[in-house]
Amino acid sequence: MKRREIYVEDFNELNKNLSETDVYITEYMYPSVKFSAIVKHRYSDFQVFEIDSDGNVAHLTSLEEVNNSEASSEIENTDIFEEINVDDVPVKELSYPLNHNEQWKQLTLLMKRNIKTESIKIEVTIVKCLKCVTNIDKNDRTNLHESIKKRYGNKLFTQTMEDENKKKYIIIGTNKNVDKRNNWTWPLNLPQYLHFILYKENTDTINAVRTLCKSLRISQNWITYAGTKDRRAVTTQWICVKRINAKRISALSRNRLWFGNFKYTNKPLNLGDLKGNRFVIVLRKVESSDENLKHALKLFKEKGFINYYGLQRFGSYSIAPTYEIGRHLLCSEWKQAIDLILKPRPDEKQLDLQQACKVWSSTKNATEALKFLNNDNTTEGIVLRTLSEQGNTAYVNALQKIPRNIMLLYIHSFQSIVWNRIISRRIKEFGLTVLPGDLIYDIDPNDTRNITISEDNEEVNVKTVRCVSADDVKNVSIYEVVLPLPGYSIKYPENIIAKWYTEILAEYGITSFNNKNKKFTVSGDYRKILVVPENVEWEIARYNNPNADLVSTDLQKLKNKVAIENVETGVHKAVILKISLPSCTYATMAIRELTKTDTSRSYQTSLTSDHSQNKMLKLTKEVLYLSVA
Fold it and tell me: Is it the case that residue 629 has pLDDT exceeding 70?
């Protein structure tokens, strides 16, 4: 289909980044101790390594495929093509010499009986009309696959597999309600879950998984992970996929996505299966004496920081913050939620997506908007495709098509804006004092006694809290106090703060978190108001080239491309900070407390631009002088 000519519109009035004050990040624990620095001058200045539930830090140390002979089962041509009626294609037109009527009759009966577990096993080491007479190469096997697909469409599926004796078989089975990954398509003695490291550069987890699924031609539901990681960063995390050969994934490593450390296991990986993250952060163009730096770092190590939700929780722009989408969902304002999801973004890198959103914004015609979209597997593409198929006002249906993990990001964003508002007001009015009626965990949130089994037969961590009595106030640390993320099953503090929640939720028009549609329902949670980082290390570095590598990535180490050298007289100063934080804790908020520097995108971009334009000293080698604290 020929596309309409793309038109250009001025977005300057919309190009407003979210600021810290927009999301109620306003207070500090110790405001007088500070120094200026640039955060994320380069995306490799911000490295994130997932810490699994057992405390192991995820590092990409190998790109080799798993050494397991059974893992090399050949699976090919598993896609099911467009359905074709049985009588539409005469046998003589089929490309493979499977022309014995009795054999086609067997397949037709199999299709019509539609038994979920029934299949036909064809030995293809030597085959003639399902009988052994001659060797069959890969091209002939492909022809056999295509012949069956051409005649039966998506009523039957075919898969090639290899047994332990290296003998190949083609499995033909009924496709209705059949999981294409049934146990008989996977070696019985090989664990069915493949865990591997995803190493990514300057892209977010959801887009990385979407790219991987597209390359593997599988649904996004096949892949699981413990949590999402920053976009503008270099990150490593564990990924899990069921019944996929490591060789297929290993072959996809390139550019900004690399896969390694493969291992097969019988244990799946679920959202939340992590202890936290290890961060390696470079703060550039630091303007402070070494003495002041060490004092600030020591205080940070001991006192920690306010556990704000960082700016990345709320989207990039004030024109369509994710918390506003979440608010509309909780208020059942479906049209408003759709319009914000499809709101044109000023600097959207995917020009086709930007244009599609602009067309929707001006015409409210999903079919016209889709004409400009190259990939309809994005959230915006899913919404537009559903509206195009079911009508431009089928808002609820379009929202229900969005994967739940993405949908929850919007609702969690709204919970987070409420939490930020509450903690800022609390610190402004009461400082860091424990109040009667405050909430603390009744038992450690990681204690197995919190684990219950949900209706979906999944483990759920149900945190329990209790109120601090007036007599207990002196015995409770401010580091124990938690504030609720609002939901239908949480307990509010038994003090003035409960009234604040009621007022704020009424301001947003929220009367209940128990939506009739469970997809837009949240139970709530609790979050500590302060966090102290663990395993804190730091180094003071000097450099001349504003863009010099001051830390190495896992990939550079694997490829032996580490090019960091020392110099004692660099004109610029940097701090290389290493910390471990619990899950769902924002390192940018830790850096904000340490430096008292604004972490907003617009402010940091201006600092980065100024630093990059400084004249570089004409030195032949990169520079680095380390002073280990």
Answer: no
Alpha carbons 481 and 47: distance in angstroms, whole number = 30
8 A C-beta contact, residue 568 and residue 628: no
DSSP-derived secondary structure for 377-437: TSHHHHHHHHHHHH-TT-HHHHHHTS-HHHHHHHHHHHHHHHHHHHHHHHHHHHTT---TT
Instruction: Decide the pairing of beta strands 459-461 and 451-453.
Output: antiparallel
The more confident residue out of 413 and 65 is: 413
Contact 384, 366 (CB under 8 A): yes
Dihedral angle over CA of 405, 406, 411, 413, nearest 10: 110
Cα–chain center distance at 535: 25
Q: Which helix (H) or strand (E) holds 243?
A: none
Write out the catalytic residue numbers: 230
- Give me the pLDDT at residue 602, please: 67
Name residue, tokens 């340490």.
Answer: 594
- Please classify residue 177 by burial: count the beta carbons closer than 10 Å to its beta carbon, then call 0-12 exposed, 13-18 middle and 19+ buried: exposed
pLDDT tens digit sequence for 363-422? 999 999 988 887 767 888 899 999 999 999 999 999 998 887 788 889 999 999 999 999
End-to-end CA distance of the chain: 63
> Between residues 362 and 113, which one has the greater pLDDT?
362
* Weakest mean pLDDT among 89-93, 319-323, 364-368, 455-459: 89-93
Q: Is the pLDDT of residue 285 over 70?
A: yes
Task: Return the pLDDT at 57.
Answer: 96
Q: With the C-alpha atoms ordered 480, 578, 273, 329, is the resulting torsion angle positive or negative? A: positive
3-state SS class at 134: strand
CA-to-CA distance for 246 and 195, rounded, in angstroms? Answer: 9
**CA atoms within a 13 Å half-sphere pointing along the CA-CB vector of 4:** 14
Beta bridge partners of 197: 238, 260
Evaluate if residue 455 carries a pLDDT over 50: no
Which residue in 11, 37, 10, 27 sits closest to 610, CA to CA? 37
User: How far is residue 297 CA from its own chain's centroid?
Assistant: 31
